[in-house]
Amino acid sequence: MQKSINRTLICFSLCIPLLFGSLLLAGTLDYKSQFLSFLPQLNNASPCGAQSPPLRVYMYDLPPRFNVGLMDPTFPDNVLVAASNLPMWRWNDGLRKQHSVEYWMMASLLYEGDDESGSTREAVRVRDPELADVFFVPFFSSLSFNIHVRNMAELNTVDEQLQLEMVNILTASDHWKRSGGRDHVIPLHHPNAFRQYRDQVNASIFIVADFGRIMNISRLSKDVVAPYPHMIESYIREDHEDPFEARKTLLFFRGRTKRKDEGKIRAQLHKMLMEMKDVIYEEGSASEEGFKASAEQMRSSKFCLHPAGDTPSSCRLFDAIVSHCIPVIVSDRLELPFESEIDYKEFSIFFSVDEALKPGYMIDGLRGISKEKWTKMWLQLRSISHHFEFQYPPKKDDSVNMIWRQVKNKVPAVKLALHRSRRLKIPDWWR
């Protein structure tokens, strides 16, 4: 009996490969669909080392008064902006730098080099709109607000005129009409950027710092949260053998303590923390001297406090990251950049507003973090800090490439909405 079974098994082991081979030679077996259907994780796998193709971006050729003309008023308005004449960002531009994301996105598309970029870029410019995945609108709306608006009650400012002209250009465009603006990318990083007319372009993908002042017209499902460009220099070298012991200050904050809305917590925290041992909580202004002082203190502190500003976010979070100072985030409504790829809990501490205002709760919690846990978080912080660098030419996995990758992740939903809207007789009938 056992011999009969063995002979049968041997027969099967010989016949099955022969049958499989003959089907392949005859062309009647789709071996990929038949065999790999049992391994669904392999169906979508890319070859080892292969990258998905970059996002294809069509960028509007706007007159320079909408973008680099705001940086350099002498730039001729009848000359197209290109890599050869792109003005470099002035790093001493103070608070204007905080919302310069619009510049770095435009610059990344203009770049024509092939060194570190090229195949590592997440987005490339295409001249044929039929090939584009998305359409980029290089209107420096944040810079326009910062330059042209001195009084929020003022009417008919140059900023408002540029906004209206921009809306007219877009709504007259065939690209916009085809999608209703859904596949357009518009930077609105400053909380007051494009403020008079942004509700007319709210189908587009917004690049925002947070949702504090655009909550009613924006959604996390379609928009991208981008970091502030950091205001202090990155901590490139850190030679301490024991960074935990070298950083003598427990908790550091320096900035304006009188803020609006959720930022009112700053004044309350100031009263609680100003007299505490090994805690520095001081008033400071945005100046070159202030940035240098903050950099020195952040590099000598274990934790850096990040309470909300006028809106839920603040540039101090990103100053802390590039200073390798573990962020302590106090904000109940904060959305963070690149959170689909980065787990902030691995290198940041979070407190709700109620927890932070409970006497002793936050400080006791920070004092209770062991050296081993702090060091693990610090190492993780150092390993991800390059994601928060804005630079030209762009480099692999830097801020602008990370932003474009987040935009790329929105494209399938954009295409679904676009295709659906074209065939529905009753839009959104399911609601």
H/E element sequence: HHHEHHEEHHHEEEHEHEHEHEEHHHH
Largest sheet: 6 strands, parallel
Rg for CA atoms = 27 Å
Instruction: Give the overall shape.
Output: globular
- How many helix segments? 16
Count of extended strands: 11
First-last Cα distance: 68 Å
What helical percentage do the residues reach? Answer: 25-40%
Which strand order does the major sheet show? Answer: 2-1-3-4-5-6
The percentage of residues in β strands lies in: 5-15%
| Structure class | alpha/beta
Name the average pLDDT: 86
Identify low-pLDDT runs. 14-50
What does it look like?
It is built from 16 helices and eleven strands. The model is unreliable at 14-50 (pLDDT under 50). It starts with a helix and ends in an 8-residue tail after the last helix. It has helices at 2-26, 31-35, 40-43, 68-71, 101-110, 141-148, 158-171, 174-179, 243-246, 265-273, 288-299, 316-322, 353-357, 361-367, 371-384, 399-423, and strands spanning 55-59, 123-125, 134-136, 184-187, 205-208, 224-225, 249-255, 279-283, 301-307, 326-330, 349-351. The chain is globular. The chain is α/β, with parallel strands linked by helices and 431 residues long. The strands form two sheets. It has a six-stranded parallel β-sheet with strand order 2-1-3-4-5-6. It has a five-stranded parallel β-sheet with strand order 8-7-9-10-11, with helices on both faces.
